[in-house]
Amino acid sequence: MTLLTRRHFVLGAGALFLGSAGVATDAFAIEPGFLLNVTSYRLQPPRWPPGLKLRALVIADLHACEPLMPAARVRGIAEFANRLAPDIVFLLGDFNAGHRFVSGPVYPEAWGEALSILEAPLGAYAILGNHDWWHGPLVTMPSDGGEGVRRALRDANIVVLENKATRLAANGQSLWVAGLGDQLAYPLERHHFRGVDDLDATLAQVTDDSPVLLLAHEPFVFSKVPQRVSLTLCGHTHGGQINLPLVTEVFAQREFGMKHIYGHIIEAGRHMIISAGLGTSILPVRFLRPPELVQIEIGAEA
User: Fold this and answer.
1) How large is the greatest C-alpha to C-alpha distance in the chain, in angstroms?
2) DSSP E strand stretches across 180-242
């Protein structure tokens, strides 16, 4: 896979606004370290049966590390998530830290224990992200191929789906949750990656006409997702992480080929929601794009 990475966008956009001390304080401390939004969507996606209502909660891009995303903050996020009373929880990868500006690691055992309190009748399901493949808990630590992340998720009773689909029953009806392997798992050379994703093999495990929810860390796969999938859920982009109104999306598309970076996208009758996530990568900065949990009422009128 060849693409220009989010690193160039974050660094380029950062240069546009960090000259102001007040803005810098907000971007480097308040937004990434203290804020937490709940972004809610209500939708009736294609091929979703009447009468099947599902409240899904999306947790994306924790990037656990000291000081901005310690285990105590992860626990607080999990406690808050439980108060939203979801039917099902989806975790969309990038549990490892995403930059070098840290004071210490948060090991998978610690953030996994913090997430172990998540409660949802239909369970919690996770995929891995590129940072879970590229390195260990910190970007300076060697990769174990994501094994530490997988083990922490399993110990927290979170089901790991990598190129796997599982069938669930909800309110007397069935649905499928399919999780895709990471699309950027192996860096090859500058801007070139080899993924471990296999969309065809994943969807081949769906054996009936029940609706499909697809979990994919990066949204790049969306152009290949068939209409058989009712809704694709993604993270990775952090919503740009630096959100300059009327600038960010145009800049990302024009300069770096990032077609979709945030929100509810409808394209050729297919639906995707991209979360801004919780942590930070490249730089410990967020601006007008605070950390968020995404709550989706599926099977409800918009």
Assistant:
1) 57
2) 186-189, 192-194, 212-215, 231-234
Owner of token pair 């990471």: 182
**In whole angstroms, what is the distance from residue 98 CA to residue 284 CA?**
9
Give pLDDT, residue 35.
Answer: 82
Q: What is the mean pLDDT of residues 2-8?
A: 47
**What is the arrangement of strands in the sheet containing 212-215, beginning at the earlier edge strand?**
164-170, 173-179, 212-215, 231-234, 270-274, 263-267
Strands 192-194 and 186-189: antiparallel
Contact between 62 and 278 under an 8 Å Cβ cutoff? The reply is yes
Query: What would the pLDDT profile of 231-281 be if each residue is shown by its tens digit?
Result: 999 999 999 998 887 776 776 666 556 679 999 999 999 999 999 999 999
Find, among 11, 1, 9, the residue nearest to 253 by Cα: 9
Tell me: pLDDT of 138 over 90: yes
Helix (H) / strand (E) containing 115: helix 108-115
Rounded Cα distance between 120 and 54, Å, is 11
Per DSSP (E only), the strands in 92-142 are 104-105, 124-126
Least confident of 21-25, 224-228, 263-267: 21-25
**Residue 165: which of 151, 179, 182 has the closest Cα?**
179
Q: Two tokens at 188?
A: 């090859």
Average pLDDT over residues 162-188: 96
Q: What is the mean pLDDT of residues 277-292?
A: 94
Element (H, E) at 1: none
What domains are there in the chain, each with its CATH number?
6-298 (3.60.21.10)
Amino acid type, 35: L
* Both tokens assigned to 16: 């546009």
Q: From the CA atom positions of the chain, what is the Rg in Å?
A: 18
